[in-house]
Amino acid sequence: MRLEWCESRRNERSPLTYHKTLNQGDNILEFRKARERGFDGAVFLNSRGEVCEATNANLFFVRDGRWYTPAVECGLLPGTVRQRVCEMHRAVEAHIRPDDLGDFDACYATNSLMGVRPVAVLGEARFSIEEPNRL
Questions:
Q1: Which of 67, 39, 33, 73 shows the shortest CA–CA distance to 53?
Q2: Angle 33-39-43 from CA coordinates, rounded to 5°
Q3: Is 68 within 8 Å of 78 (Cβ atoms)?
Q4: Which pairing describes strands 92-94 and 115-118: parallel, antiparallel, or unpaired?
Q5: C-beta atoms surrounding 34 within 10 Å
Q6: Which residues are CB-neighbours of 84 under 8 A, at least 6 positions away?
Q7: Whole-structure pTM value
Q8: Nearest one of 125, 74, 124 to 95, comparing CA atoms
Q9: Partners of 90 in the beta sheet?
């Protein structure tokens, strides 16, 4: 996958952020903009500049075999696949900033429809690709 950054920010203080609702306007608009520019989606930062989630997926980052995912309090919907991947890989919840991405070897996007997909590009960051069936 190729992802870019969202222009709008996720409000980590809103209680609606943590619930699956029909209020998906920001996600839809940012996803459409990303697709128009040739990307597969976009990633939200919160009001503090921390990585949250993609327009339609949770994110994981890998460094030296250790898995990390944005902390729930950063402003994301904790999906069922995210929970499973956290359990499988003993993922660490972290506060990740865009400047931190160069320290990671790999990135994955997850949701219940696509499962686990490798991310090759996120903004300026480039990641190695490992097929999800080898995870």
A1: 73
A2: 75
A3: no
A4: unpaired
A5: 22
A6: none
A7: 0.89
A8: 74
A9: none
Q: pLDDT per residue over 36-94, tens digit each?
A: 999 999 999 999 999 999 999 999 999 999 999 999 999 998 989 999 999 999 999 99
Query: Position of tokens 């990135």?
Result: 107
For 91-113, give the DSSP string: PEEE---GGGGGG-SEEEEEETT
What does each C-alpha distance from 11 to 5, 32, 68, 100, 132 come to in angstroms?
15, 20, 21, 21, 31
**Residue 90 and residue 78 in contact, taking contact as beta carbons nearer than 8 Å:** no
Looking up tokens 């190695």 gives: 128
Mean pLDDT (whole number) for 91-102 = 97
The H or E element spanning position 25 is: helix 25-36
Tokens at 43, concatenated: 């990633």
Cβ-based neighbour number of residue 33 at 10 Å = 16
